[in-house]
Amino acid sequence: MKALVYDGPGRRSWTGHADPELTAATDAIVRVDAVTICGTDLHILKGDVPEVERGRILGHEAVGTITEVGAAVTTVKPGDKVLVSCISACGRCEYCRAAAYGQCLGGGGWILGHTTDGVQAEYARVPFADTSTYVLPSGVSDESALMLADIVPTSYEVGVRNGGVKPGDTVVVVGAGPIGLAAITNAQLFAPSTIIVVDKEPARLDAAKSFGADMMVQPGDAAAAVAEASGGLGADVAIEAVGVPETFELCAKLLRPGGHLANVGVHGAPATLHLEELWIKNVTITTGLVDTSSTPMLLRMLAAGRLETSRFVTHRFGLDEMDEAYDVFAHPQDSNALKVALFRS
User: Fold this and answer.
1) What's the pLDDT at 300?
2) Class of domain 2-150+291-343
3) Would you list the DSSP string of 207-253?
């Protein structure tokens, strides 16, 4: 088969690779029908995730068809169309029993494309298939479901839910990439009074407007915009959706006393926490890896027409165009790419 293989910082190739095989009774083999690229994959290629070894197949977001299952798998079978979650869950450990699957102690968590081979390939081995795949409801397209592998549950759980967005809030989202746009979509479920989006790229601010943001501003104008929208108090919730020190520190500056900073971005460098300013303000800061506990609920919303996800996809490719898709996704300032989707021919 062909797969996207990481060969150290800055090096990747769509190349021949051995087909995956079942290695545990809880595994499934999935024929990949649709796959996408995540900002985290770009962080890996920059060297920000050093535990990813050379030779690793990247990717943790896919929709596919089960072709083979291990002897212990009971909830999916060959022929089933499934969403492959970015998070694998053993289903038995202390964290999995609390639906905190991202912290799985039994060999799961974020492993696909990280500590085990991922799904940017023609076929993939999916560990813990019973608890790490979701059968697609009737009528849900591969492309729409693909967005529920990572960005939609991540923005919902780590951004909006952790941030405690509630009716009437002033919400600022720093970063209008896919995660930031998904945060806009999910925040609207809780009826905030104002959603302000901060980004340097005009095309991404335009995208934020199309996704329902009320105000779109450059970083230098963010403080004034938040003050205007909040009567001078600051943001109730600031969602960091980039993963660089400047955006984290900007979120902290935009919070009102008692506000909540929900960090979603993947950080590869230290950020300064200005406790000399924040200690007196009663602020809450949360971080997190998505657990995907919301995925079944989001799939039900998608099937019911209450959630629109295909609009995240701006560019479509065949699987064998993986290199071109990476180039497009890695340079959104030139391509205006949000999410790319690659499909089996």
Assistant:
1) 97
2) alpha beta
3) HHHHTT-SEEE-GGGHHHHHHHHTTTS-EEEEEE-S-SHHHHHHHHH
